[in-house]
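Support request, priority: normal
Reporter: lab tech (M.K.)
Component: structure prediction queue

Hi team, I submitted a job for Uma2 family endonuclease from Anabaena subtropica FACHB-260 yesterday, and the status page still shows it as pending. I've pasted the exact input below so you can check whether something in the sequence is tripping the parser. The sequence length should be 192 residues. Please let me know if I need to resubmit or if it's stuck on your end.
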Amino acid sequence: MVQSSNKRLTLEEFFALPGGDITYEFVNGEAVPKYKEDEVSPKFFHGSTIGALFILLSAWAQEKGRVVIEWAIKLTRNQQDWIPIPDLTYVSYDRLAANWLQDEACPVAPELVIEIISPGQTFGEMIEKATNYLKAGVSRVWVVDTKARTITVFALSCFPITYRDHEVVTDDLLPQLEITPHAIFQRAGLNP
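Reply from support: The job had stalled in the queue. We restarted it manually and it finished. Here are the results:
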């Protein structure tokens, strides 16, 4: 999918663009590649970490909600339509009913989105994206750094908190979820 002119797209035009090998997000009326031009695609650390998080979160989320990999979300940023595609999304059945079954972007702001820093991305860029998610109504954002083996949790109500090793990530918004960076990276095959 490549935008062929400098014309701004409508949301409907964005969703009607043909698919391809590149993942695009909708930002300021344009189809913008999720990954930078010099980065072909996510690598092993990124993919295995997504897999580990999906397994761990899906086990916790049974009967609570759905965990989805690379699911577009309909949000608003700076009073414009914004369609980001986080690496992982958790949305409870309270926000999006269990019987909702549509092949479309997530229509509500989820409780949690997770972004894994890819080669070519910086932590600073992820802080900006996390801030945009929170302003758009997402309750929590986790930024996962596979090199530092950390999870940084962002919420509107407090400063970001970074978890390392065996520190337990807990959150009243995600009841009974107890997870450590060590467990995630161990399952991903990144801890010796």
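Residues 72 and 105 are 5 Å apart (CA to CA). Helices lie at 11-16, 44-61, 123-135, 181-187. Let us know if anything else looks off. Ticket resolved.
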